[in-house]
Amino acid sequence: MRPEVEYPSNRLQTVAGKALASLCLAYAAVLGVGLLTLPSPDKQIQDPWFTLMEILILAIAPAMVAFTVGIHSAASAERKPLALLGVIFMSMCAALTSSVHFAILTLSRQPEMAATAWAGLVFSFTWPSVVYALDILAWDVFFPLGALFAAFAVPGTGRRRWVRQLLYASSALAFLGLLGIPLANMNIRNVGIIGYVVLFPMAAALYGTTFKPSGTQGAT
């Protein structure tokens, strides 16, 4: 009997799942400290916590894409189109949120930008602002679509069923965050945070640790 062969795509799923879970855990911890140290409820999170969150998001974004690519690589032929849609929407989320947070980290801190009268309407995470609207598009539209199609591409029972249910739940909660706009209550978006900061990395960690690679083969 020949030894089992592990293909790179299988390793990708394990590494991406664990990395995503670890980064989101760190993000949740920083977010919690940031919320606890708010000077008042109507203010955004202060530095250094805000900057740390921005940096962590820039690391989380490619990990999310890598995780969905791993799901695509393991999907059966009939489910690959669904998995591909998951990769596409998650990539759109990652690209958009990375652009938003990179611009905040760099441009918003330039004296020329900060001194303008419209800086708050562009870079602030107080509604309404340009970056806030783009971030909602990324996390409450593109992310839940990506998680939903990724869930469609994960078949099976047992632990895989738990992965699928966690992905469905993360998608649903992120979509609910959109209600903050028509209801003019951005606190509703906190429901979405549970979806993409808690449930989605839980699905990634479970998938990364329990996945039985289709490319791991043994032959007699």
Note the main attributes of this structure.
220 residues; mainly alpha; 70% helix
Task: Explain what the structure shows.
The N terminus and C terminus are likely disordered. This protein has one domain. It is mainly α. Helix 1 packs antiparallel against helix 2, helix 6 packs parallel to helix 8 and helix 7 runs antiparallel to helix 8. The chain contains 8 helices and no strands. About 70% of the residues lie in helices and about 0% in strands.
Number of helices: 8
What is the count of distinct domains? 1
Q: Summarize model confidence as the mean pLDDT.
A: 87
User: What fraction strand?
Assistant: under 5%
Order of helices and strands: HHHHHHHH
Q: Kindly, what is the distance between the CA atoms of the first and last residues, rounded to a whole number of angstroms?
A: 4 Å
Got a strand count?
0
Short description:
The protein has one domain. It has eight helices and no strands. It has helices at 8-36, 49-74, 80-106, 111-114, 119-123, 130-152, 159-176, 189-210.
Task: Set out the fold topology.
Layout: H1 8-36, H2 49-74, H3 80-106, H4 111-114, H5 119-123, H6 130-152, H7 159-176, H8 189-210
